[in-house]
Amino acid sequence: MNFPAEYMIANAQGGQRENGSCNVDLAEAVLTISPESGAGLMFSWRDIAELKAADYKVFLTSLSGDRVEFSSLGYQYEDFLRIASALRNKMLIKDSLLDEPLKKSQIEAHYSFQDAAGIEKAQGQCELRIYETALLLVPDGAGMKRFSFRDAAGVQAGDRELSLTLDSGEKLLLSKFGAQFDYFKTHLSEQMNQMLLMGQKLLKSIMPDLDGLALRKASLVLKEGWLLPLSEIEKICPGFFARLEKTLGADPENKKEFALLKSLSRQERICFGFKKGLGGGASEDYFLLLFPVYSADPAKPGNAVAMEAFRTEQENEVIGENAGKRATYFFRLTSRKDYPLTKDISGLDEKMTAFTRFFNAAMSAVNFRRAPLFLSDSKLEEPRYARYRAAVARIPELRALRDVYIGRVIHSSSESWIEDISNLLAFNIHSNDDRAKWLKSQLPDAAEEKIDNEELLEEQAVPGQEKK
Asked: pLDDT-derived band of residue 380, with 50, 70 and 90 as boundaries?
């Protein structure tokens, strides 16, 4: 749709570059500015970091920091803002790495978002969408916002109103549903309960003797997509660590991998969680563990945290088919220059506690996608990885996690996996450059290419159909 307007372009430092009259075309993929005099230019919705409005003006900020101001839109101001926001949100949702089944959508409401101090930060009309593990809020005239169920501290329903309180203290107030209030309340509660019941089912598979009340208490603490130290889980479920080890030991390969990573780790700091698979099937669900590899002796392999996933369903045929399609991911715990100077193990323990909180927030922000972590800066420049390039630019937690990412070790064979882990850890303590990444070779071998294709295919899979 085409809109006549006045425009002004400024650089990231605020210096004005040009201004004048123009026509603005809002299309599916791009916003195009055609000045009355001068060269035209366009912005992909993917490359717009922020779109906001005030005093009948619309402000656009690109990922590179350039800013564009549109004014003199007249009676078309609201249509311009509504259409531009809708097109950008469509791209944001596509790029949000949310690839999981959509359960319910097209629920209209009014929202008010408050910070932890109770100060309203945003409000307006919106569409609500219920996904398998999150609530998505798509505002009219603003960017979409995702609320993971794992971040919810509680939900309260009043007289045609509903409030969602987050662990951070922030609050989402929803009202003016019309006839859809009961529909939304019922299905939101149903989906949040499904995630709790999934957790209870997985906990029951590890500790069959846990009763209903104990299961519910544990599932309210150990939520889907949230990792906790095993020592904390032991307080709720005594004997959990030993039972988990027994469960994983039912498969010979899992038993061997778990035993090696455990032997390298500061065991009382190992963290555990579980994640719902993006495809919606139980066979895609997995246990996720963080193995802290550090000690007060800087000469030993350390300054690392290993992330390993284990399928929740132990089927030899499935594991056999997936041989060579998995990887163990490693992250740096602290600065490589500071690590050799550390003499007190308690200081490293504190850093591991902080890393776990950071890891939970960062991985939640990218919905536990792996490709945005391991793709190099040069790979991100390729057109087929545009959504990941935009995610890196837009999500600060992802950039921070990429900064501490060391590398990954492919599960091509037990022997090479063990050898590569040893080489990666040795590289990590002998390098002084925090930016250096571990690569088995300068060019990916066949196993690297295989897992790249496997992971990217999983990332780009079509989400399940919406259920009415």
From this structure: confident
Residue with the bigger pLDDT between 6 and 314: it is 6
- Name the residue among 377, 378, 371, 380 with its Cα closest to residue 452: 371
- What pLDDT digit, counting tens, does each position of 164-208 carry? 999 889 999 999 999 999 999 999 999 999 989 988 988 998 999
Question: Which ranges constitute the DSSP H helices of 265-408?
Answer: 316-321, 345-365, 371-374, 377-380, 386-394, 396-404
Contact between 142 and 117 (Cβ < 8 Å): no
Who wins on pLDDT, 52 or 343?
52
CA separation for the pair 329, 306 (Å, rounded): 6
What one-letter code names the amino acid at 144?
Answer: M
Which of the listed CATH numbers 2.30.29.30, 1.10.8.60, 3.40.1280.10, 3.70.10.10 matches domain 2-94? Answer: 2.30.29.30
Answer whether residue 322 shows pLDDT above 50.
no
What fold, for 96-192?
PH-domain like (2.30.29)
Q: What is the mean pLDDT of residues 260-268?
A: 93
Longest dimension (CA), the chain: 76
Q: What CA–CA distance (Å, rounded) separates 429 from 448? A: 24
Name which of 267, 166, 136, 143 is nearest 226 in CA terms: 166
